[in-house]
User: Fold these one by one.
Assistant:
Number 1:
Amino acid sequence: MRDPKQIIKKALLTEKGNQLRQDRNEYVFLVDRDSNKVEVRQAIEHLFKVKVKEVHTMVQHGKIKTFGRYKGPKPDWKKAVVRLAKDNKIELFEGV
């Protein structure tokens, strides 16, 4: 298994993510593009010491941005929505 810190890049804090966390105990992370669901599950369980129930991943395509007079694409990135088992919480998100 690869290093879990290379798989999980950062937590995504958005309004929709906060609603998912409160209603369905789901957390959203930015993950490495080459990682799969099994690697994401193992990395979350290892880093945060919680039990993962299911993982959904999706690739978000980069937008075209203007830099001065030049246009260029932002890189594509992968997002993982992780549902935890009942009574499990990630302390990193509490109080946000």
Number 2:
Amino acid sequence: MPAMSEHENLSGGEHQGREAAAGPEPAVVGARPGWAGAGNGADAGYPAPDPRTRVVGPPAPTPADEQGAPGAAPTGAPYADVPRQGEAAAPAPARSTGSTGRVVAIAVAAGLLAGAVGGVGAYTVAENRSSTSLTAPGTVLPQSSADLSARPDGSIAAVAAAVLPTVVQIEESDGRGGGGTGSGFVLRGDGYILTNNHVVAGAATGGGSLTVRFQDGTSVPARIVGRDTSYDLAVVKVDRTGLPVATLGNSDGVRVGDTTIAIGSPLGLEGTVTSGIVSALNRPVTAGGSGDNSFINAIQTDAAINPGNSGGPLVDAQGKVIGVNSAIASLGQTQGGPQSGSIGLGFAIPVNQAKRVAEEIISTGRSSHPVIGVQVDLTYPGPGASIQAVTPGGPAEAAGLKAGDVIVSVNGRVISDSTELIVAIRSYAPGDTVTLGVKSGSGTKDVALTLGSDTSQG
């Protein structure tokens, strides 16, 4: 039976450009065919992603939909299909990728221009039909004075004013004519910036480069300090000091219904602010592409997140970062309509997880992942994750687990399949002790297990 190597899938090792081997698709809560993923897909047995699409897009265009054709929809944005009833899916990274991102941005600008021209045309026709002025000469319509006062604390305007200076746009070039834009935010005043791995991955190869653009309009080159494909996180560094720093919150205190504010550069439109609420917590999500699957214990939000928002902060009503915007779900063209943008399904990496990874990368250039030392059976129908093999000398063996046991919970959190197990374990740190609910034979027991560590370098 195909098995998912928990060691390999939690290693976060670099697999750029590697094609994933075909295999049975796991029953992923937060994932289904057609959703983009990033991570160690080859070892996990995930279906091979199309290497031409860093993220999942709509089906191949018909001639009428080709770039530049009249009425053509923008292509290349990281969209994914909506799951069937009762089935969640792993969304695509919300990053504006490659030259396509630029085409979409240009298309948006062209659309605005066309609207302006159309408006002038309509006004001219109206004037030709009648010589009557829209307002009588000398008429002054009533208007209130501009409100230049500071907005109250906790308002979206006040939060945006405080957080915007800490948010940056990241422009990536792969050195081969490709590239794209994403977002990030300042972790330290001496130039350390956090973003998604998929935002900067193209620049990690020879000839690639990164440019960081600040809210004041200045741009400076940046270098990659380290990255983690499994967590879809990266730290970059610019040679600047005295930068305004984002305030990190505590994602353990986030609750469904809390206010969320997303800030970033969707479609290259830097400094864009959208708002919503926390729609769900602990959403198991796999995201990415090119053979690199990231497993995210995501915060779900209905704040509008679009390609280019990736790596930007998701903040609360106090302006504290609670997550790193990483992925979106979209209808795409699977429902017979045109490609669409945000449908209110955005996903962010919890800041507590991101903080730990960033601290390790800044200190050592590497990050560690918690492991339990098992391989799980991808064909097991559930509920739970069935252990196919136990790593000799690993944490699971030390805890007394054996092949055939089924893990049904982690610290009380119900586990429905192998991906949920990986996502749940990844939300902890190496050295943490967790209680596993284990179905063994005809009974179920609680097993205390201390998580091991697997270190990777991006």
Number 3:
Amino acid sequence: MTIHDISFDAIIAACDEYDELGKTQFLRKYGFRTAKTYMLFWNGKFYDSKAILGAAHGYISPNSLPLKSAEFSGGLAETVSVLESLGFEVVSDPPPSSNPNWTEAEVALAIQFYRGHAPKIPGKSSDELISLANEIRTAARMQGLRGNEKFRNADGVYMHLMHFQQLDPNYSGSAIGKSTALEEKIWSYSDKELNRAAEAVRTRISAFEKTGQVEQRIPEPNSAVLKLLIASSDPVESQLGHTLHLWQEAKRNQGKRASLGREPGQIKNSDAVSVIEQRVRSSASGFDEVTSTNESYEKIVIDHPDRFANDVIAIAKARLAEFDLATPTDDREELEAKIKEIILRPYMISEPPAGNPTPRREVSAGFVYVRDPRVVAYTRVRANGICELCAQPAPFKRPDGSHYLETHHVVPLAENGPDTPQNCAGVCPNCHRALHSAENKDHLAKTLMKKLASI
């Protein structure tokens, strides 16, 4: 008998044994290693696909024996093919076998909850605890963290809350576990500082739930000043350090000089609030950095209005509306409306926008791409009503009086082309169709590339 003789029931029997023995004992018994790429997903649980298939061979009949790891492949051709042919779901990039350490954002939410409920912490099955677990799980996911089936569940969150009893001077019983340096740091916050930190996390969660964009996971900063800011218990200083660090990485990803200039020195010699107010008044937040990171001086002001002057708050609100205008979108009507508004604000496209080298694709009725309105607006203004391929005037005008040209991506988005000014051209409808469908479309594309390179 071969792996192709394995039945659905044999797979289920192997899964039942896996559950009974546990992952470690099951793999040891059958001589398999943990799956690296493909996992069987059945009844809400993940199983090592190759090990399950090998064990299932022993359940085909009373006389059949399990297969050894060396007797068949764990890849697409054998293991995955057999499992899928039997109707099972096989997933790649399986979840980790263990859960990641808690982050500062998660700990802040948990300690705020503990302080608000101690000494009577709600039970594991209470609505309050389940709600907290959901919030903490979202905070972890917004940072790109993943885990196994117990990832930040109510049981785990409850046990984590019990760790804080070691730090609670009002608790006299025997505490569970051992607190970490991070927990001790956040426990030292005053109630006001803790509430600010927790609300800043909820603001980030709200942005994540709205956009679905995972926060960038970037290396530690080299700047000593940034390290101090990020580690600060003052939420304004911490958010400023986080913002500047993200900007630095955004510039680096855009091929720009990633220096922070005079910023660290000015922050060191002054307080963060004064520096932020100065930057907001001078509109120092760059569109490219803000639309890449969703972070700005203005956002810090709005997140902590009690720390800033009224005129700075008013400027920040107006400026944030412009950042929203510059935010990429997958809605065609919204994109067109944004383009028109941006063209009326020449300072928003006074320099070529960075755009997005890897625009995100969303599912609608079909696939649509998240487009940068500043890139389209810049391209239209650059073309100035003249087709950038045939050099003829636009064939007609829109009802608002603007020249009708279409935006063409030289390297199509569907072929992983970037949504940047260097890859976009304003062309007339005839040239646009020719670029996509003419027999000499490759020659036309090369001609257009040369023209764009010379601009």
